[in-house]
Amino acid sequence: MESESTELERARGIDGDDGGSDATLETEATIETAARERNGPALAVEGLSKTFGSGDEAVTAVEDVSFTVESGEVIGLLGPNGAGKTTTIKSILGLILPDEGAVRIHGIDVYDHPRAAYDHVDAMLEGARNDYWRLTVRENLRYFAAIRGRDPDALADRHDELLERLDLSDRADTPVRELSRGMKQKVSLASVLAGDVSVAFLDEPTLGLDVESSLTLRRELVRLADERGLTLVVSSHDMDVIEAVCDRVVIMNEGRIVADDTVENLLAGFETQGYRIAVRGADEPILADLRERFDVTDLERLDDDRTRFAVAADSATFYRLTDAMEAHGLELEAVETVKPNLEDAFVELTGGSGHGDGGGGEHDGGGERDGGGGRGSEDGILGGEEEARGGKDETRGSDGGTHGGERR
Ligand SMILES: Nc1ncnc2c1ncn2[C@@H]1O[C@H](COP(=O)(O)OP(=O)(O)OP(=O)(O)O)[C@@H](O)[C@H]1O
């Protein structure tokens, strides 16, 4: 089996084995210049479909998925487990060959011209090995710039700036293996951005970070997008991160896009909102009646007489609730409106099946990067040492169709 990272590097032409003759390079450069001049979106996905297996075993992972991302835009790609996010991202990155559809980066078809298309793209994928732990932080940045074909010396100032922004400057000369998990996560991000790419895919970028580091990273991602026109596709189970960082979210469910809108619009389109209510005089039978008739949660006895609860209700329902409370002789002590958040919108749009990338064990594994997982040792391109970039799931890598690599 060939590792996914090998495939990606090959798609990018990093191994120098994709026919990169001078003539080809010239053509690719021309393609890129022409495409950029057209000023199209940074990323365009059109009609992407992928079914794994066949017959009774067939699983349609992605069905007719289309979306675009403009330069400098930050979008969140969300969905419950199995929604098709990974398949979509891997198809965009050339790690999976879709059955149908087209992907263009800065107007360049990724399957027709992988070298030119992927020249300015990088990814921090879940569970992937993004850093060499034996190298220092700065050496990692230089290394990843070099394997993208950039001159690390020419990018030295840029690297300094990245380290500064991510609060890593004082660790620049520390081997990555000596850093905390949160810092390693920041180094991974810095490494992805070290080659001065214009489009980056970030899976759980704040995973393992303490609150302060997470806030720094959110702020810097937004700044990088604003100031440098960096285009980001972010996947995270943490809706606060998505809300803080993303201009827009694309929500997938069962292989299809169920929402593609700004966070603001998604929340505005939400009819149901919530209230937090405190009342006096509610006994158990009254509370049972309210619970039966309304969507009451978080019920809490404050003392013998006072009760607080939350209720999901649009305004009409809220008035019915107040009528019911009055009929029960309850005294309304306090009412507070609870605004719907992205989490609420997500649950409603995806049928409440819980969000994807669900943190937990799967991701914890991603933190144990040193010590050579399967992919790194197979890879070879990155020195066969301890880490290599790649996709998240070796088992999927064995899928014949996925890695056929028969790109045109
Ligand atoms: N190589 C494969 N072979 C068979 N089925 C697959 C393969 N890869 C993905 N699938 C299936 O395709 C569907 C979409 O999976 P995908 O990993 O893209 O979803 P996801 O949204 O990334 O989920 P998660 O959040 O769990 O990673 C799932 O039903 C999954 O089991």
Automatic annotation (TrEMBL):
Residues 43-279 form the ABC transporter domain. Keywords: ATP-binding, Nucleotide-binding, Transport. Residues 1-40, 347-408 are annotated as: Disordered. Belongs to the ABC transporter superfamily. Residues 360-378, 386-397 have a biased composition (Basic and acidic residues). This is ABC transporter ATP-binding protein. Transmembrane segments: none annotated. Pfam families: ABC_tran. Residues 23-33 have a biased composition (Low complexity).
